[in-house]
Structure formats: C-alpha cells, structure tokens
Amino acid sequence: MTISAEARQGNPSGYRILNEADLRAYLAAIPSVATQLGGPADHWAITEVGDGNLNLVFIVKGSSGGLAVKQALPYVRLVGESWPLPLSRAHYEHLALTHQNRLAPGLVPAIVHHDAALALTAMELLEPHIIMRKGLVAGTIYPSFVDHVTTFMAQTLFFSSDLALTAAAKKVAIASFAGNHALCKITEDLIFTDPYRIAEQNRWTSPWLDATAADIRADLDLHVAISRLKLKFLSSAEALIHGDLHTGSIMVTDTETKVIDPEFAFYGPMGFDVGAVLANLLMAYFASDGHERSQGERQAFESWVLGSVDQVWSGFAQKFMELWRSEARGDAYPLSLFPGEAGAARLEAERQTYMARLLQDAVGFTAAKIIRRILGLAHNIDFELIEDAKRRATCEARALRLARTLMVETDAFISIESVTNAARELRHWQPEF
Asked: Whole-angstrom distance between the N-terminal and C-terminal Cα of the chain?
C-alpha cells in the first residue's frame, strides 16, 4: 500500500480518535471484519486495554471470534498532547508486520484490516497469550521462547540484509522505511542522549540512585561509548530491525511466541534488536530479587532467565549462520570471490569474524537499553513493581553497574558467557546507599 504525502508529513485527512462506540460502528461497516467477529454489532464486547506509551489498543469480541485493534494517537500517550507524533507510524508498523509475516511466518500477529486514514490496524487477537514482561515479573518460565525469538531475529534480519538482497532491492527497502524518522528520533533521544545529561523527563529511584545518575552524567568514557553506539544507530542500515524488541513487545504462552508493535521499524544495526532482547532478560534477572517473598524461591526462574541470555545469542548466531551458508543470494560476499576449498574456508572464517563484531554491537546496545530503562523516561515494570523503593534501587544499581561495564569495556566481552558470568557475579553485590 502507499501513504499520501500529507500522511507522511503529519496527520491524514479523515482522521479522528475512536472511542468504543465509534469503533463498533466502524467495524460493523466492514463486512469481512463483521463476519469474523460474528453476531450483532451491539453484542460485541469492546474494551480499551492499551497500557503502552503511544497508542490506543482495543480488544473486540463477538460470538465467532475476536480482534485486537490498534489506533495511533497524534501524540505520545505517555506524555500527552504536548508531545505530538505523526500518525504515519501506523503505516510503518503495518509495513513492518507485512514484511515480518513473510520473513518469519507465524511469529507475528496476522493482519485482518488496515485503514491508513484512521492510522488503525485490526489484527488477530492473541489469546491466551500475555505480555511476556508480566509473566517474567511473576517468575514464569517460557520453554519455547528462545527458539521462537531467535528464529524471528535470524530470519527477519538475515533476509532483509545485504547477505540476502541485491543492492538495488536493499536500497528500495531502506527508502520505504526512511520516513519513520520521528520514531527514530525518540530512540535517539531517550536511549542514546537523555539518560546521560540533565533532561526534564528523566527519572529514577530517588534518593538512592541520585549519586549513580550524577556519576553517569559526568562519565566521559561512558559518553564516548554511547555516542559511538548512537552513530551506529544513525548510520548503519544493516537490516530491517523491529526497533523496540523488548519483553513488553512479545506475547507468549508455554508453546507460542508472537512479536508485536514494530512501529519503530527501520533499516538499522542488527545488534540493536539482539541487544534489546538480551537487555530485557538481564533486567528481569536483576529485578527478580526484588520480587522474592522468601530467599531463594525464584532460583530456578533466575537460572532459566540467565540461561536464556546465553541461548538467545547462541541460538540466533547459529540460525543466522545457517541462513548465510544456505540462502546467501545478496550482493555482499559473492561466492564467486571464494572458489574451492580454500575460498570456502576463508569465507567461513569471515562469517565468524562478522558474528564476533555483531556480538560486540549487541553487548553495547544491551547496556544502552538497560541504562535508559532505569534513568530515562519510560521504565520497566520488572523494576517498577518492586514496592520497597530501596530494594528496587538495589536491583537497579546492580543492573546499572553491569551496563556501565558492558558499554565501556565491550572488547572484554568476547563471548555471551562472559556477559552472563558478569551478571551472575553482581547478583548479590550490595551498593552503598
């Protein structure tokens, strides 16, 4: 589909914010949607359930089935109308979901209906799935998660990269997402800039983290490291990235995993998506201590979470490499340059070097995502639901200590095991508050 110039620049004509009554009438007028829901429209149950930072989300249930309906607001919901945001992000989310459904079928919700003018998308209702972050707070283990999320990342990143695409196709793809700069700007500010300076919307667990926040604002080594990561985010159009791949954008059951909310999607560095997943697992690990009611009751959960950090990287790397060996049809690393056994061996060595660089990127982005969730604007419920503020700050201080080391001493982390070992060593460290 295409989007009008007006919609790309701001808000399309015909847009209005829907309430439950408006949505009922709107959906009833779409025959395919009304048939899928079933029964009279006035019997449909419609509930607004959006608890994210940006959008309205409705759950609609009829006698035959249900839908999730997402509508973009012309501002950041978390802040309000003082922070306007273009509705064109709904177009980019729809475009990303379309690509992801093709590249990683079954791992994102199916699209049922899209309305560009209303910045609205209706998609399959995921039940009995829950937001993964809520499950992690409760200490729930998800045995299928690692396999599914590594498949999602390997397939969406590889098949949108120069390893799989011709240069011409890649440039066209980059251009199709280039207009999503308003969402990129949020990332550029909230992740790579604001936590390292005085910013009005920053917050943290005060007074216990006041000194830590001040130290980070004065830490020039850290400022150089985050600036290098920001430059990579700004300039490295390696693949189509989800752009916000945290445990709040993943819905799970014991047997299914669905990645949702790719409205931050654009062509950026692959390590950003991988690092986002690793960061959120590490934050769940450090936050777990704050949710314990008796000492050691969450030991099995914490072991699984930390093991999942290892397995997310190793599983992703293995699947990505397998795709590179079998599906490499892009203009990067043409096979004609690596003939015979010697050429194949040299190319394999280069693949290993490539993945080592990607791990370094992921480690840095992991640190950036941890720091922003503790010292910036939008926080995680992993920490926020720890009622005792000092106990929460202790968990957060451990995560921040790890993040600072990961970002400034990235070269020391040459394996994912070195990351999880460092996290394990900090699990019982006590900050001096």
From this structure: 55
